[in-house]
């Protein structure tokens, strides 16, 4: 299994540009999430999905869109990039359940917005 | 979501046992306690999870007192490779998805 994969690894955008960060998992996990991590800080939840066709907002959703058309993929779209969105973005996935199940994280995408 | 408080940083030496304590006074009945480890330029990695008393796996132990308002991650005989940030999280994954709340974590530095 490849686990959770993210592309690209690095990206530089100009203010106002749009782009999509890709995330895929091959573990048949129903839950998928996107986080951002700013320097010296913990991860903050952007959006999450409990299954194909179902998404919801996390702690910091503004400026980002998501969709979940398949179990495997959960892309994150930046509609109009701003310097405040410079960060490292992590995608994660897990099985559902009543317990706080183990989340598997991808390697991250380092985004710089100029 | 229950808020957690843990030390910003800790220093240790190789071969020592390290205990990192996390406070979570507002933990709910359905909440579990989970610890993650993060190395620079990598995503967090699950270490251990528990609900009450003691849980042990091949890398760590988790001690949770009866009132569950705190927990302690114990790393036996640390090595240089254990230098990382350790996050304590509290919550439950049912229904509303895995809405994890990460604090700033504890930066553990292990020296020779």
3D architecture notes:
The complex is a heterodimer of chains A (114) and B (112). Chain A is mostly beta strands. Chain A contains no helices and eleven strands. In chain A, strands 2, 4, 5, 6, 9, 10 and 11 form a seven-stranded mixed β-sheet that branches. Chain A has a four-stranded antiparallel β-sheet with strand order 1-3-8-7, with no helix packed on it. In chain A, β4 (31-37) and β5 (43-51) form a beta hairpin. The model of chain A has no long low-confidence stretch (mean pLDDT 92). In chain B, a hairpin with a 6-residue loop joins β3 (32-38) and β4 (45-50). Chain B is globular. With 112 residues, chain B is mainly β. Chain B contains no helices and nine strands. In chain B, 0% of the residues lie in helices and 46% in strands. In chain B, the strands form two sheets. Chain B has a five-stranded mixed β-sheet with strand order 1-9-8-3-4, with no helix packed on it. Chain B has a four-stranded antiparallel β-sheet with strand order 2-7-6-5, with no helix packed on it. Chain A binds chain B through residues 4, 31, 33, 35, 40-45, 48-50, 56, 58-59, 90, 92, 94, 96-108, and chain B through 30-34, 41-46, 49, 51, 87, 89, 91-94, 96-105.
Please report the total strand number of chain A as a whole number. 11
Give the termini separation of chain B.
38 Å
Class based on secondary structure composition and strand pairing of chain A: mainly beta
The helix-strand sequence of chain B is: EEEEEEEEE
Pattern of helices and strands of chain A:
EEEEEEEEEEE
- The mean pLDDT of chain A is 92
The largest contact between protein chains, plus residue counts on each side, is: A-B, 32 and 29 residues
The helical percent of chain B reads under 10%
Report low-confidence residues of chain A grouped into runs of 5 or more.
none
Total helical elements of chain A: 0
Residue fraction in strands of chain A: over 45%
How would you describe the shape of chain A?
A: globular
Number of strands of chain B: 9
Mean model confidence by pLDDT of chain B:
90
Largest sheet of chain B: 5 strands, mixed
């Amino acid at each position: 299994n490849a686990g959770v994969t993210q592309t690209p690894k690095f990206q530089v955008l100009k203010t106002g540009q749009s782009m999509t960060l890709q995330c895929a998992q091959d573990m048949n996990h129903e839950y998928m999430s996107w986080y951002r991590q700013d320097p010296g800080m913990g991860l903050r939840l952007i959006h999450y999905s409990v299954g194909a066709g179902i998404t919801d907002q996390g702690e910091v959703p503004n400026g980002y869109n998501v969709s979940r058309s398949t179990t495997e993929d959960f892309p994150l779209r930046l509609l109009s990039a701003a310097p405040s969105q410079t960060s490292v973005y992590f995608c994660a996935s897990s099985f559902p359940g009543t317990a706080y199940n183990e989340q598997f994280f991808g390697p991250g995408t380092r985004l710089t917005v100029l | 979501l229950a808020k957690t408080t843990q030390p910003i940083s800790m220093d240790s030496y190789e071969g020592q046992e390290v205990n990192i304590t996390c406070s979570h006074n507002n933990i709910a009945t359905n909440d579990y306690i989970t610890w993650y480890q993060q190395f620079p330029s990598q995503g967090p990695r699950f270490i251990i999870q528990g609900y009450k008393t003691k849980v042990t796996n091949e890398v760590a132990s988790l001690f949770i007192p009866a009132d569950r308002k705190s927990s302690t991650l114990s790393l036996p005989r640390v090595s240089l490779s254990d230098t990382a940030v350790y996050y304590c999280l509290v919550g439950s994954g049912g229904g509303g998805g895995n809405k994890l709340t990460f604090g700033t974590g504890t930066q553990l530095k292990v020296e020779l």
